[in-house]
Design brief:
Order of helices and strands of chain A: HEEEHHHE
CATH class of chain A: Alpha Beta
Shape of chain A: globular
Number of strands of chain A: 4
Oligomer: heterodimer
Number of strands of chain B: 17
Radius of gyration of chain A: 14 Å
CATH topology of chain A: Sufe protein. Chain: A
Number of domains of chain A: 1
Number of domains of chain B: 2
Helix content of chain A: 25-40%
Largest interface: A-B, 19 and 16 residues
Structural class of chain B: alpha/beta
Largest sheet of chain B: 7 strands, mixed
Distance between the termini of chain B: 35 Å
CATH architecture of the largest domain in chain B: 3-Layer(aba) Sandwich
Helix content of chain B: 25-40%
Number of helices of chain B: 14
CATH superfamily of the largest domain in chain B: Type I PLP-dependent aspartate aminotransferase-like (Major domain)
Chain lengths: 152, 417
């Protein structure tokens, strides 16, 4: 187990400072509210889904939290825009397993792109929820979970 | 209180390097960087003297206590009771019979809330705590008041982290049954005027519990002088093993209290119809206790006494003054809690970075701090912050470690701005 990986890289800091797609969505077809009580992270993810094509046309979010959760959500929105719902679920699975240390994108084929930046979080099990909150909330939105998501 | 600008780091009153050599974990590295351990408010590291004593006891002397008349057991019972006497002396208790072993502060407070509370707190009565208690000294009283239809009143805290004593005076009534406050706040470091709190509570006819979890490792405690009815502590915060702690309780108060946990060892006589209970402290020590941990606690007290509590307090005070001065110079950093009387603890809030990001980034520099609400959410709410990063010091910390903390914090601020 190595401690010296750079978790807080420039990309993460940049997305924390200037989150992408950081706004409410007026004509969202799906949305979900997610909280991570540990850090007090609190986000809402909005989706515009073309049901006929099964494509996520637009993704945005609002909320506040630690740098990891904010950057993770920002990068997620950027990554998923225009992807098919099925693809989104594949990325969710890979991401979720990666932060838990059960999937190694250095050794396996993946669809994570830049999201591999969050691999270092597996060294901090107490903080994996910061990185995965956005994704759980996304799935909550796709599944139309009205009660919201809590990582606890 | 010394002037922070004139802190002398020359000739500290204790030999820190010699002390550090006693704590094996302090020479370890985290990710290639020397471990800087500043989470002593959560738990403290163990010296060889404690580790070896427990190991020796387990390998050569271990036996049950108070249950057998063979020599192994007689000997371990003697060592166990010797440790109780050490705790009594350490806290200034008149007799060792007024020391009850529990798993720690949380269990000790629950003991009092359940036992004393069940008998003496009734509908319409009042319990007083403060706004700067950790959850262990908040939740048991909330639950008790809810169950009994009693009212929980809270002493407010001023912006500097000190309790507002004029407000406390107003909260005390002839319905107050117990006042439960900490000696030192785990979130802010405030040393509370517990003698005055106790005197006033007694004048109103109330009993007093002082939560000593954060004070016993760092300053001289004299329960006789304080005159409190209960004083609780945790061994793992004072260089002893985890899973052991306890409380002082005045004999005449404890004698009137029913048992909390029942079972073996806390009885006088058991028939299938009726059980009569042993006198305190045995009444509150049902079941086989954590024997090795008690022996370790005794060794930890010996270790602390070997350095001397006056010297520990003086040295840690100089660490606090040094750290306060260093961090006060950093732009964008706020220290939450600036009480005049304060233990060696700095609750840090950065305008630019979330406390959990701070903690993870400090960890990458080998620096261990607690981040979060410190199990004191009402305190965080009062000061309008979601969480802080807390540097809590012990006598084995060095000025250089605080330099490293300050440098790392500056780097983080730069990173996030």
């Amino acid at each position: 187990m190595s401690y010296d990986n750079e978790l807080y890289q420039q990309v993460i800091l940049d997305h924390n400072r200037k989150p992408r797609n950081f706004h409410e969505m007026e004509n969202a077809t799906h949305s979900c509210h997610g909280i991570n009580p540990l850090c007090g992270d609190d986000i809402t993810v909005y989706l515009k889904v073309d049901e006929d094509e099964g494509v996520v046309e637009d993704v945005s979010f609002t909320g506040s939290g630690c740098a990891i959760s904010k950057a993770s959500t920002s990068l997620m929105t950027h990554h998923l825009k225009g992807k098919k719902i099925d693809e989104c679920r594949v990325v969710f699975n890979e991401f979720h397993k990666m932060v838990l240390g059960e999937f190694d994108p250095e050794k396996q084929d993946h669809h994570l792109g830049k999201l591999t930046l969050f691999q270092g979080i597996r060294e901090y099990p107490s903080r994996t929820k910061c990185a995965s909150l956005a994704w759980h909330t996304l799935v909550g939105a796709l599944d139309k979970k009205t009660e919201g998501i809590s990582t606890e | 209180m010394g002037d922070a600008n004139t802190v002398s780091t020359e000739n500290p009153c204790i030999d820190v390097d010699k002390i550090r050599a006693d704590f094996p974990v302090l020479s370890k590295e985290i990710g290639g960087k020397p471990l800087i351990y500043l989470d002593n408010g959560a738990t403290t590291q163990k010296p060889w003297q404690v580790i070896n004593r427990v190991s020796q006891f387990d390998s050569e002397e271990y036996g049950t206590v108070r249950r057998g008349s063979y020599r192994l057991c007689e000997n371990s019972t003697r060592l166990y009771e010797e440790a109780r006497q050490k705790v009594a002396d350490f806290l200034g208790a008149p007799t060792c019979h007024e020391i009850v072993f529990t798993s720690g502060t949380t269990q000790a407070i629950n003991l009092v809330a359940h036992s004393f509370g069940r008998k003496f707190v009734n509908t319409g009565d009042e319990v007083i705590i403060s706004n700067i208690e950790h959850h262990a000294n908040t939740v048991p009283w909330q639950v008790l008041c809810e169950e009994k239809g009693a009212t929980l009143k809270v002493i407010p805290v001023a912006d500097n982290g000190e309790l507002i004593m004029e407000e406390y005076d107003k909260l005390l009534t002839d319905k107050t049954r117990i006042v439960a406050v900490n000696h030192v706040s785990n979130a802010l470091g405030t040393i509370n005027p517990i003698k005055e709190i106790t005197r006033k509570a007694h004048a109103a006819g109330a009993k007093v519990l002082i939560d000593g979890a954060q004070s016993t490792p760092h300053m001289k405690v004299d329960v006789k002088n304080i005159d409190c009815d209960f004083y609780t502590f945790s061994g793992h915060k004072m260089y002893a093993p985890s899973g052991i702690g306890g409380m002082f309780g005045k004999m005449e108060v404890m004698e009137a209290m029913p048992p909390y946990v029942t079972g073996g060892d806390m009885i006088m006589q058991v028939t299938l119809e009726k059980t009569t209970y042993a006198k305190p402290p045995a009444r509150f020590e049902a079941g086989t206790p954590p024997i090795s941990q008690v022996i370790g606690l005794g060794a930890a007290i010996d270790y602390i006494n070997g350095i001397g509590m006056d010297k520990i307090f003086e040295y840690e005070k100089s660490l606090l003054d040094y750290g306060t001065r260093l961090l006060s110079d950093i732009d964008g950093l706020r220290i939450i809690g600036n009480a005049k009387e304060k233990a060696a603890l700095l609750s840090i809030y950065l305008e630019s970075a979330h406390p959990h990001d701070i903690i993870t980034m400090l960890d990458q520099d080998g620096i261990a701090l607690r981040g979060g609400h410190h199990c004191a959410q009402p305190t965080m709410i009062r000061f309008g912050v979601p969480a802080t990063a807390r540097a809590s010091m012990a006598f084995y910390n060095k000025y250089e470690e605080l330099d490293a903390l300050a440098e790392s914090l500056k780097k983080i601020i730069k990173f996030f701005s």
